[in-house]
Amino acid sequence: MSKKIMILPGDGIGPEIVEQAVAVLEAADRKFNLDLSFEQGLIGGASIDAHGEPLTDAQLEAAGQCDAVLLGAVGGPKWDQLEREIRPEKGLLKIRSKLGLYANLRPAILYPQLAEASSLKPEVVSGLDILIVRELTGGIYFGEPRGIRTLESGEKQGFNTYVYSESEIERIARTAFEAAQKRGGKLCSVDKANVLEVTVLWREVLDRLAPEYPDVELSHMYVDNAAMQLVRAPKQFDVMVTGNMFGDILSDAAAMLTGSIGMLPSASLNETGFGLYEPCHGSAPDIAGQGIANPLATILSAAMMLRYSLDMGEAADAIEAAVSKVLDQGLRTADIYTEGSKKVSTAEMGAAVVAAF
Amino acid sequence: MSKKIMILPGDGIGPEIVEQAVAVLEAADRKFNLDLSFEQGLIGGASIDAHGEPLTDAQLEAAGQCDAVLLGAVGGPKWDQLEREIRPEKGLLKIRSKLGLYANLRPAILYPQLAEASSLKPEVVSGLDILIVRELTGGIYFGEPRGIRTLESGEKQGFNTYVYSESEIERIARTAFEAAQKRGGKLCSVDKANVLEVTVLWREVLDRLAPEYPDVELSHMYVDNAAMQLVRAPKQFDVMVTGNMFGDILSDAAAMLTGSIGMLPSASLNETGFGLYEPCHGSAPDIAGQGIANPLATILSAAMMLRYSLDMGEAADAIEAAVSKVLDQGLRTADIYTEGSKKVSTAEMGAAVVAAF
Ligand SMILES: [Mg+2]
Ligand SMILES: [Mg+2]
C-alpha cells in the first residue's frame, strides 16, 4: 500500500536541503519498491507569507492524513518582528501538539570520518551511535500549577510542577523499548529516583514493562551520573529514555559530543507511529539560497522516517550506508570541510548519496 | 584573632588524607602568620563506633562554634548494614542542614600536568578552572507538595515541586557574585527562563543584584545550552551559578571533564561565611590504611577554606601553587600515576606540598 509523505520545506535553507532528501527517498523508492508518494505543503515563514499564519488548519489536517512529515527548518529575520503568536516557530509547536507527538528521538551519531570535529578524544567518540528518547509533551515544562506568586511575607516565589502519570510514562517507555529492539537491544532509563518521587514512578513503570521486552536489557541511571557518563564514555549507551527536561539537557549534551550538530537528524512520534522528521539544525538564513548547506541531517531524518514510521528498515540502513560512503569518498559541505577533503555543494552532496546507493 | 578549624577525618582514607591537609595548613600558618588553631572531632562511622550515631549534637555544636570545618570522607562496608537513619552519610546531611550550608562550591580544575586524564582533547580542557556554585538546600529536591497519588481514573501520578523564593535566590546569588569577585570577575547564571517560571524569578533576582557588583560581568544561559557549552568549550566559563537540580547535573558533568575527580575539592557555605570543606571523592575503604590515597583534593579543600571562610586568599593561592609545583616535579599518587612520573605515597605527597611552599 502506498505511503504518503508530507513535505514541508519551510524557510531559509529548508527548501534546498529537503529537495536533496526527497531525491534520496525517490532513489530508495526505486531500489526497494517502497511505493512512496509525496505531497508538498507550507509551514513557518513560507506559510505566513502565503496565508498570514505559520500553519493553517487545512495544512495541519493534510499532514495528519499522511503517514509521516519531512520538514526542513523554519524561521528567519524576515519574520522576527511579528508578534509571538504568529512567528514561524509556532507552526512547529502547533503541529507537535495537535498531532500528539510525545516521543522525541534524538540520535547522537559520530561517523568515524568526522571524529576530529568533536571536542572529545577520537577514541572516546569515534563511531558513537546512541539514541536519546525524550518525552516531549509532558513533565515539568507543561506541569500545573506554575507561576510566580507573592508570599504573605511580601516576597515573591516562583514554582513549577514536575508531573507524570503512569500512562504518559508507559507510552514513551514503549517507544524506547521498541527503538532498542530495532537497535542494539540496550535501554538505559535516566531518572533521579533517589530524590524525586515523580521519577520513582517513572522507574516503577519501566520495570513493570521490562518483562514484555525480554530482548531488551533495561538499566537505570541517575541523571547526574548520566551527564558524567556521557562525558566519560558515551559509547557505553545504546538507547536512553528520559523525561522532557532531563532529555532536553542530555540530548543537547550528547549532540555536542559529536561536534557536528549539522549532521544530526531527529524524529517526533505519536502513538500511531506517525512522525515528524527534521534535522536538528535551524534554517540558517545567512547561507540560504547559496547552495552550500549540508543536506545530510535531512537525508538522515528521511532514513529515520523509513525506519520508525514506515517500517522500511532495510531502505533506512541503505541510506545511512550511502551517507557513510560519501564521507569515505572525502566529500564535505562547507560546514564539515577540513583540509584534504573535497568541498561540494548541497546538490552535489545529495547526488553523491543517490549515486552511492 | 585566632581562627578555629574543626577537623573531622571521618572514615576510610579520611584520616590519612586529612592528616596531610592539616600539615599543609600548619605550614601555611607558619609562613603567613595565620593564627590557626585546630580541634579534632568525629563524624560518620567513627562517630557511630564511639557514640552510636553518625554526628552527636555536642559535636555539631562544637563544629558550629568553629570558623570552618575540614572533613575527610565518611562511610564504608562496616556500617552498610545499619538502618538508614544511622548510616555514616546521615552525619553529613545533618551538619549541612543544621548549619544551613546552602551554597555548594564545586570547582572543576584541570592542572595542565594532568590534561591527558580527560576524555576531552587536551587543548579543550588543559588549564580548565571553573567554579560551579550550586544552591544546596532548596529547589525541587526539597519542594512541597511532592509524592505519588492515585488519580480518579485509577492511574498513579508522580509529582514534585520546583520552588524558589526571592530570598533563597538572593543569598546564593550573592555567594556567587562574591566568588566571581575573588576569581575572574565573570558570572554565568544558568536557568530555563524560556520555559520555567521559577527560573524567570531566578533570572530577575540575578539581574536586580548585578548593579551591586559592577566588577562582575553577569550573563545568563539556558541549562540545555550550558550542558552543550561545557562539552564544547568549557574554558569560556569562570563562575557558574544555578539551582540545586541543574547544579547537581552540571557540576558532576564539569567534574568529569577533568578526568581526575580524585583531585577536586568542594565547599558548602552558610550566610555567615562558615563552611564545610571536603574532597569530592569518597572514603575509598578498599585502599584505606595503605598510605597510597591521594591527599591533594583535601589539601585543595583546605585552600578553599582559607579563601572562602577565613579570607586568607594569599595563603590559599600559595597552597594551590605548591600543588601545581609538585605536579610539575612529576610526583603522582597511584590514582593519577602515568608512566614516566614518580609514584609517591600519601605522606610523601603531603610532605612535597609542604616543601614546595
Ligand atoms: Mg534543548
Ligand atoms: Mg550529583
TrEMBL record, chains A, B:
Chain residues that bind Mg(2+): D224, D248, D252
Domain Isopropylmalate dehydrogenase-like stretches: 4-353
List of residues binding NAD(+): 76-89, 282-294
Reaction catalysis annotation: (2R,3S)-3-isopropylmalate + NAD(+) = 4-methyl-2-oxopentanoate + CO2 + NADH
GO molecular function: 3-isopropylmalate dehydrogenase activity
Binding site for substrate: R96, R106, R134, D224
Gene3D superfamilies to which the protein is assigned, alphabetical: Isopropylmalate Dehydrogenase
Record keyword Oxidoreductase present: yes
SMART domains documented for this protein: Iso_dh
Cofactor binding notes: Binds 1 Mg(2+) or Mn(2+) ion per subunit.
Pfam families: Iso_dh
Enzyme class: oxidoreductase
Residues annotated as site: Important for catalysis: Y141, K192
UniProt keyword Oxidoreductase, yes or no: yes
Highest taxon in the source lineage: Bacteria
Record-stated family: Belongs to the isocitrate and isopropylmalate dehydrogenases family. LeuB type 1 subfamily.
Quaternary structure and partners: Homodimer.
Protein name (record): 3-isopropylmalate dehydrogenase
Record gene name: leuB
